[in-house]
Amino acid sequence: MKIDLHIEELILDGFPPGDRHRIGAAVERELTRLFTERGLPPGLARGSETAQIDGGSFEAKPGGRAEGVGGQVAKAVYGKIKR
């Protein structure tokens, strides 16, 4: 099954602008891993579309690596899709 996921806007406050591409790439990698290992969340498996997902908020340690932040974002998004 093909999944087409488009993230139009990802708002992350408090991170250096230069980290945006690394965070985005980490989000993509982690979402790919989650969908591959855990499968499609029930809502998507039924073929429904989701126009907007609020991944909520999370705390990141100051000076945290962009890859870790991206992983946290992906897990938050996947968790919201799962419902």
Q: Radius of gyration, rounded?
A: 13 Å
| Strand elements, count | 0
Bulk shape: elongated
The biggest beta sheet is recorded as: none
3D structure, described in words:
The protein is mainly alpha-helical. It has a domain at about 20-40 and about 65-83. The chain is built from three helices and no strands. It has helices at about 20-40, 40-45, 65-80. The longest helix is centred in the middle third of the chain and has 19 residues, at about 20-40. The protein is elongated. The mean pLDDT is about 80.
Give a short synopsis of this structure.
The chain is an all-alpha fold and 83 residues long. Helices cover 47% and strands 0% of the residues.
List descriptors.
83 residues; mainly alpha; 3 helices; elongated
